Amino acid sequence: MPVVTLYWDELEELVGKRREEILEKLPMLGCDVERVEEDHVDVEFFPNRPDLYSVEGVARALKGFMDIEFGYIDYKVSKGNWKIYVDESVLKVRPRIVGCVVRNIRIDDRVLRSMIEVQEDLHWTIGRNRRKMAIGIHDLDKISFPLKYTAVSEDFSFVPLDFEEEMSVREILEKHPKGREYGFILEKAEAYPMIIDSKGNAISFPPIINAEMTRVTEKTTNLFIDVTGFDENVDKALRILAAMFADRGGKLESVEIIYPNKREETPDMSPMVLEVKKSEIYSLLGFKLSDEEIKLALGRMRYGFEIGGEVIKVFVPPYRADIMHEWDIIEDIAIGYGYDRIQPTYPPTPGIGREHEWFKLKDLVREIMIGLGFTEVITFTLTNERAQYEFMRRKAEPWKDFVPVMHPLTEEHTIIRTDILPKLLEVLANNKHHAMPQKVFEVGDVVVNLKNRLRLAACVTHAKANFSEIRSYVQALMRELDLEWDVKESDDEAFIKGRRADIIVRGKKIGVFGEIHPEVLEKFDLTNPVAAFEIDLSEIFDTGYVI
Question: What does the record give as the reaction this protein catalyses (predicted)?
């Protein structure tokens, strides 16, 4: 979670209170005070409150909570004569762009420091490490409008931030520190996003680096902010930054974004309007609040409101990117009312809780396997079709046999696992340089036919690992579980024909064991024989098994 450094002189100046009073109220904002020093305090905030990643945002929240200011801040945005033309070529690369102009802002080293820190925190949270959203802040007076947001080739060149000589896009991605750090985002791009002014000067190569030409210094008085990305996250980030600079005394002006088929003006600093029922507040909090108490709580949390009858109309500040549902507002009402004023009570319960049979079985199986000399491992539930099926000589169809991951970040994590055994073979492959024999097991969830199933898988590897050895472990497990079992010839291609068997309990197949096929071993780069089994513990439950 983001840790924000707040300097006492700045925070005391913005809030208008002494540090002792501020320190007492800080945890009420939903944060952890990590470290208190003579000149600053380090505070950890949850990722769902990006508006608190700056000293301006924290001061704004504290002034409401400490009854210095009350209610909604109406941020005024003057209509500007600033335009950005979006070229069709960039729509397939990084299609969204928004902008804002901030005039008459006083920049000193504290503002510069806060600006850089909040940018990086927003990149990490809302921007998902710049994948979804990236910010550029520029000296407005160095830019000639209108701007063009377009896509360029890798040979396009300009002077990037912190450098003195021109570099091509290709060179920036290969040599510039930010290019090496974030170049993976554009790894498969055929063209590269670029913001160019009317004189042909590049001002930003999102999401990598700004141009040196538009560097913000302590002499800067007017700012241009651009935010690029793919969805509404760009709007969220821009509204947070606009509010931050407005709180510093800056005057906001709109920027017109002209797409091939539409136009829009940004930033939109109008409030989102949600309706909250009083009965829902009483139901969730467990006690009644008067209208005055609700008003006071909402005002402290910087909301606007209109109370009439049962329904409260709430005006959500534009910088509150975390508010999605009326329950989010009710949570803030509780915070504004004061958690310390809420008396905890024990809810009436019809019975006494006990451990679920499912977990009893998991613990019992773990004890048995450890008693048999196996080491427990825990692997990722996300995997890929190649490891689960191709390497295991098995076939499958998406959705029918496995659940694919939408928009996977890597080729290694494209589906939710349907078997644990391939993951154990990966563990053995990563540990083949260690002494033999190796015996590992895992008890965990898989998803088959869109349903969660509890599985147990185990592997043994050494020079003489064979069918008889793994059968003895299955037999010991069944004996300890007090289950009568039988075997039947298996057709699982992951195992060697003639050295594989299905496990049958009460006439139902619950698993398979045997010697892993040499082709499978080769795919996983294993040199020693492997004997293994995998059992569906959910099937044992389905047979009516009771511990």
Answer: tRNA(Phe) + L-phenylalanine + ATP = L-phenylalanyl-tRNA(Phe) + AMP + diphosphate + H(+)
Amino acid symbol at 226: D
Domain 357-542: state its class. Answer: alpha beta
Query: 77-266 domain in CATH 3.50.40.10?
Result: yes
Residue numbers in the known binding site are 322, 328, 331-332
Cα distance between residue 501 and residue 444, in whole Å:
22
For residues 63 and 247, the answer to whether their CB atoms sit within 8 Å is no
Q: Is the pLDDT of residue 406 over 90?
A: no
CA distance 428 to 528: 10
CATH of 3-65, one of 3.30.56.10, 3.40.50.720, 3.10.120.10, 3.50.50.60: 3.30.56.10
DSSP letters along 381-450, please? SEE-HIIIIITTT----BTTTB-BPSS-SSTT-SEE-S-SHHHHHHHHHHTTTSPSPEEEEEEEEEEETT
| CA pair distance 535, 37, nearest whole angstrom | 56
Which residue ranges make up each domain of the chain? 3-65, 77-266, 272-341, 357-542
| Cβ atoms 421, 387 nearer than 8 A | no
Q: Tell me the per-residue pLDDT of 343-388, one tens digit each, with 9 for 90 and over.
A: 888 777 777 778 888 888 999 999 999 999 999 999 999 999 999 9
- pLDDT (tens digit per residue) in 185-225: 998 899 999 999 999 999 999 999 999 999 999 999 999 99
Is 49's pLDDT higher than 80?
Answer: yes
The CA distances from residue 69 to 293, 300, 412, in Å, are 16, 8, 51
Binding residues for Mg(2+): 322, 328, 331-332
